[in-house]
Amino acid sequence: MVPVVKIGICLLTFLATWTWVAVDASFEPYQLNGGLVSAVAGRDYVILASDSRLTDGGYGIYTRRHVSTRLWALSNGPGEQLTDPDGSIYMPSSDQVSRGALEGSVLIGSAGCSADCESLKQTLRAEIDAFGSSFWSSQQQPLTVSTVSTLLGQVLYSRRSFPFYSFCVVAGLDVVTERGAVYVYDAIGSHEQVAVAATGTGREILQPILDRLFSSTTTSSNKEKAFLVRDGNFVSAADQQGSSLTLSPPVATVVDCSEQEAVSLLLRGYRSVSEREIAVGDNLVICILRREKGSKQTLEIIMKVQSFPLKQH
Fold first, then answer.
1. Taking the mean position of all CA atoms in its chain, how far away is CA 291?
2. Average pLDDT, stretch 269-273?
3. Residue 241 has what pLDDT?
4. Distance from C-alpha of 197 to C-alpha of 219, rounded to nearest angstrom
5. With contact defined as beta carbons under 8 Å apart, do 218 and 210 qualify?
6. Whole-structure pTM over 0.70, yes or no?
């Protein structure tokens, strides 16, 4: 009788230990809080957009007016009237306009785990503040969008063993070409320059919609090859070869439409996604940076923030 009791006690101890290990192994450090971020690069403007719904990763909604970790400025340059001290873009109730200089006019959008997006924002802004007072000031060089894109990639890659659960888009106006520039990232810093980018929850739905809306198609005049349809944004292999051993992107990095057309197309895309994705909805917040000549014929930047309603389900 005693051996049977001992065997029973050992079996219960084993089951209790196995259950504890199984629960511990299911620990998940990340939570997907939603967020669909996109960007469009134009010839004299750049647009960064996001929806405002913050979810618990399922059907629960924390808030319908969240943009603090979705859209933020790297520095408080052009949009001090539209940003918090930490760089977060205000959620506007109506159209707002702010003017400023081109230097430092870089916006970043991030989606994924809200806590990681906030931590990434603080880390990157601290890096810029640390170097801004020493390197860029001493060298008298502006903080360019290409510099920011490289820095963000390095910050994300430095955490590759336990990465930020944050999927980012960098948008800004290039100092040299004066064109819009957009870079899209994965969670460990791999990135590329594109004309239209989308990341976050619902990206698989939004990206092909935007590709179709923003790209033109051309069909061969040869009747035998009339079925061949090409994306109007493609760049031929011969034109991709640059100086030395560098290669240009295989697709165009700016769109040809106007700012108003781009905003309208983005709104159409987001409203389509909000009908099909439960984590996307409530409001679409759009930040626009565009260039214009001021009274002294110097380049100035207008930052504009707009809000449009989406489906609330």
1. 21
2. 95
3. 55
4. 25
5. no
6. yes
